[in-house]
UniProtKB/TrEMBL annotation, chain A:
Topology term for the membrane: Multi-pass membrane protein
Family label: Belongs to the binding-protein-dependent transport system permease family.
UniProt KW keywords: Cell membrane, Membrane, Transmembrane, Transmembrane helix, Transport
InterPro entries, per database record: BPD_transp_1_N (IPR045621), MetI-like (IPR000515), MetI-like_sf (IPR035906)
Main location: membrane
Pfam entry (one): BPD_transp_1
Protein source organism: Streptomyces bingchenggensis (strain BCW-1)
Protein name listed in UniProt: BldKC, ABC transport system integral membrane protein
Keyword Magnesium: no
Subcellular location: Cell membrane
GO cellular component labels: plasma membrane
Domain ABC transmembrane type-1: residue ranges: 106-315
Length: 325, 343
């Protein structure tokens, strides 16, 4: 296990370094004048020169990248002052430190993504298991057509319709807002309930379909047949034997879906006016705030890569056939 | 998988195991003839009712996208004119349609846009047109790149395969949606000075480029695997022995066997690009006013949903129908090509 974790972490570091290098190069080398972006419209050459000097933008891009990397681990000194250890620079638009803004925003996205994942995993896997147990019946067909439609729904459409129906018209669910869980868990839950439900809609269909086919496949396996032949109850065979085999591939798919989960969280945040990382990314795009965007990008990529390692480790715990090292 | 080069060989009179020759022969009395896999596929597809209906729906969407100017001309309106502002009696003092259900009537079939009072029907037509144009371009580019990289990696093997594989891994590590959002302004600034307005055609090109850069890897990976196994088959070996050039082997022996995954994958790809582009526009990084855009209609709808939910309804339902039809079509194409797979 330890060897696996070390090996995967090393691979992850390489991937993150490459991503950061590519992103950094794209952000700071391609635009003709990053300082222009920092300065906004109607900015004289003097102001641009000053910004270049203050932010170290007048150096060659590889040198800038090196300073950036060093800054993340050791802090960095700008002309304007010292930027402490995880230094991702300062925002072009409001001069706030990037790291603090990210720290401020990420709990929202984390709550949204984890809660949404819990909802779609529980619902999707249950639906898939019910469909597999009742294969060929009306229930099965009903769920499969439901998943076809669910698969074609979009957060930006369903979210608004749900907001209108459930919140504005019927008043069944609280208006979405983010309250830190440490502050008020009940409010945290009720405020995020609708975003979770809507975010999970696009995933439920996939997971129910996959669980169903995995279960059907597992139920046809020989060890399952042997268990049946031994006279084990259908319930034990279904849950202890088939389910265990079926759930492992599902876990892998979760790892692959993490990236799109983040994308989904971005659109969900936008639909429900939650202030998370996704919204921060979009805001920094519209304001052309490169350091902020770079920070969000790096932070999210790291989060996704780490989550992927955890998922893979989980996979080995669930399925002992998988050798990690 | 059947190899076309084998099935279409002269003298191959026996129909494939999937053909149903009896009925045809009974009617025409003609002798048994070999059918190409394409013909077989077409016959199977025609029998699949769901597939045929969804194909019609998909064609319908492409037709209205193509004919949007004609339809708008017949209908007598355009997506740019602010009818509600120009003409009194259409919008109230808060600039929402006076008539119920978003101002739907005989003149404005799908109602009026809140605030600006533009015609929703033509906006949707032109919006579908823009979105489909982008999605089709991205799909074509991604399919071509996927074929090129996948076949090269699979056929060349060795170092080429290794490096292309690692490159694909790297690109797959980028979270797609976030990268689309993050890299769009960078590509904009590549073309134009940030101080100036970005012209629409450059925005379209940017959206295409950004989605293309991170969209082709799935197909490439799939095709690489297919080519790896095909490369070892006897007919490829035979072609090699008879002195066929690599280019000829790829074109005549490998590609005909790859059309199934290519077609199925690109059919399934297109709706994801439509929704991704719509998502970008929804987030405000896609096309900007006044270019009509499917995705931006959702952004407008979301802003005014409390007072005018109808505006959201038409683009939303249209998109659900479009994606459902396209997914069903993809499944049917897969079934028609490869009857062994069951849904």
């Amino acid at each position: 296990m330890l060897r696996f974790l070390v090996r995967r972490s090393l691979g992850a570091i390489v991937i993150i370094l490459l991503i950061s290098a590519i992103t950094f190069f794209l952000f700071f080398a391609l635009p003709s004048e990053p300082a222009q972006l920092a300065c906004g419209k109607n900015c004289g050459p003097d102001a641009i020169a000053l910004i270049n000097k203050n932010l170290g933008l007048d150096e060659p891009v590889p040198v800038q990248y090196w300073h950036y990397l060093v800054g993340i681990f050791a802090g960095r000194d700008f002309e304007v002052g010292h930027c402490p250890a995880p230094c991702f620079g300062y925002s072009f638009t409001n001069s706030q430190p990037v790291w603090e803004t990210i720290m401020d925003r990420y709990p929202t996205t984390l709550s949204l993504a984890v809660g949404g994942a819990a909802v779609f995993l529980i619902t999707g896997v249950s639906i898939g298991m019910i469909a597999a147990a009742k294969r060929g019946t009306f229930t099965d067909k009903f769920f499969s057509s439901l998943s076809l439609i669910g698969n074609s729904l979009q957060i930006y459409f369903v979210g608004v319709i749900a907001l209108w129906l459930l919140v504005d018209t019927w008043g069944l669910i609280d208006r979405p807002e983010y309250t830190p869980i440490t502050e008020n868990p009940a409010k945290w839950f009720s405020g995020l309930l609708l975003p979770w439900l809507v975010l999970s809609i696009i995933f439920i269909a996939n997971y129910s379909r996959m669980t169903r086919s995995q279960m059907v496949e597992q139920l046809g396996e020989e060890h399952v047949r042997t268990a049946r032949a031994k006279g084990m109850s259908g319930r034990t065979v279904f849950f202890r034997y088939a389910w265990r085999g079926a759930i492992a591939p599902i876990i892998t798919i979760v790892g692959i879906d993490l990236g799109s989960l983040f994308g989904g969280a971005m659109i969900t945040e936008f639909t429900f006016t939650l202030h998370g990382l996704g919204r921060l990314a979009v805001e920094s795009v519209t304001e052309k705030d490169l350091p902020m965007l770079m920070g969000v990008m790096l932070f999210s990529c790291t989060a996704i890569v780490i989550a992927n390692i955890i998922v893979d480790a989980l996979y080995a715990v669930i399925d002992p056939r998988v050798r990690l090292a | 998988m059947t190899s076309p080069s084998q099935a279409a060989a002269p003298g191959a009179n026996a129909p494939g195991p999937d053909a149903v020759p009896t009925a045809e022969v009974g009617k025409s009395g003609a002798p048994l003839v070999g059918r190409s896999p394409g013909q077989l596929m077409w016959r199977r597809f025609k029998r699949d009712k769901t597939g045929v209906i969804s194909a019609y729906v998909v064609i319908f969407f492409f037709l209205i996208a193509l004919l949007a100017p004609v339809i708008a001309w017949l209908y007598g309106k355009n997506p740019y004119t602010t009818y509600g502002l120009d003409r009194p009696g259409l919008l109230n003092e808060f600039y929402y349609p006076i008539k119920p259900n978003g101002g739907i009537d005989g003149e404005f079939w799908f109602g009026l846009q809140p605030q600006l009072g533009r015609d929703v029907f033509t906006q949707l037509l032109y919006g579908i047109r823009t979105s489909l144009l982008i999605a089709v371009a991205v799909t074509l580019l991604c399919t071509l790149t996927g074929i090129l990289v996948g076949v090269t990696a699979g056929y060349m093997g060795g170092k080429t395969d290794y490096f292309l594989g690692r490159f694909i891994d790297l690109l797959l590590a980028f979270p797609a949606q976030l990268s689309f959002v993050a890299f769009t302004p960078v590509v904009y600034s590549l073309f134009v000075n940030p101080e100036k307005e970005t012209p629409t055609y450059l925005r379209v090109i940017t959206l295409i480029l950004v989605q293309w850069a991170l969209g082709w890897m799935g197909l490439a990976r799939l095709l690489r695997g297919q080519v790896l196994s095909l490369r070892e088959r006897e007919f490829v070996e035979a072609a090699k022995v008879t002195g066929a050039s690599p280019w000829r082997i790829i074109r005549k022996e490998l590609l005909p066997n790859l059309w199934t995954p290519i077609l199925v994958q690109s059919t399934l790809m297109l709706p994801t690009f439509v929704t991704a582009e719509a998502g970008l526009s929804f987030l405000g990084v896609g096309l900007v006013e006044p270019t009509p855009d499917w995705g931006r209609m959702f952004a407008t709808g979301a802003r005014h949903y409390q007072n005018d939910i109808t505006y959201m309804f038409f683009p939303g339902v249209a998109m659900v129908i479009f994606v459902v039809a396209f997914n069903l079509l993809g499944d049917s194409v897969r079934d028609a090509f490869d009857p062994k797979t069951k849904r």
